[in-house]
Design a protein that fits this description.
Elements lengths: L2 E2 L10 H6 L18 E9 L2 E8 L14 E8 L1 E10 L2 E11 L3 E4 L4 E6 L3 E8 L6 E4 L4 E5 L14 E6 L6
Antiparallel strand pairs: 1-2, 2-3, 3-9, 4-7, 4-9, 5-6, 5-8, 10-11, 11-12
């Protein structure tokens, strides 16, 4: 699958290139989140080795804690203010290990396996670059006591439709 509607070379971008990117390049791209979802996403470019997504965030609706499978990522805040919360997986569940404020122009990098959650404080737009494409993303359903592996085309929130769920694990793991 190949889809391209992004500036040349963006799938190979470095954090510096993402930081220097003109946010207006994506002003025509807008998607609206559903009433129960934290954001809507638009796939801007994809190849087997990378994908570029635009997220349009609703205010005060955090996504679920999640990882990005084996992908590494970079996120550029195009507009708005968000908070990112980082977690560490423990035998008892997730432990919060940090929080950072993000605003327009900020770029963050995420290593493979990082578990985090984001929440916009106002309408926001973010650009996400993942290498390789996200596959096997885990989403923590804290209220439901389970970890879901969601379809590669689903976002970082608990699906309302079970067809988006590929695997379910009870959480936190039962102790022996």
């Amino acid at each position: 699958m190949t889809k391209e509607c992004a500036p040349d070379g963006l799938l190979e971008a470095t954090p510096q290139r993402l930081a220097e990117l003109n946010a207006n390049s994506f002003s025509a791209e807008t998607v609206e989140p559903e009433a129960h979802e934290p954001y809507a996403r638009a796939l801007l470019a994809v190849r087997p080795e990378a994908e570029l997504l635009l997220m349009c965030w609703a205010p005060n609706r955090p996504c679920a804690p999640h990882d990005h499978g084996h992908a590494r990522g970079m996120i550029r805040v195009l507009e708005g203010r968000l908070t990112e919360t980082s977690f560490r997986e423990t035998s008892d569940g997730l432990e919060e290990v940090g929080e950072r404020a993000l605003e327009a122009g900020d770029v963050i990098e995420l290593g493979a396996g990082v578990v985090h959650q984001m929440c916009a404080h106002e309408r926001a737009r973010t650009l996400h670059l993942y290498r390789p494409r996200i596959h096997g993303m885990r989403v923590w359903d804290v209220a439901g006591g389970r970890v879901l592996v969601v379809d590669d085309n689903h976002g970082a929130f608990v699906p309302r439709d079970a067809r988006w769920v590929r695997a379910v694990t009870p959480w936190p793991r039962a102790r022996p």
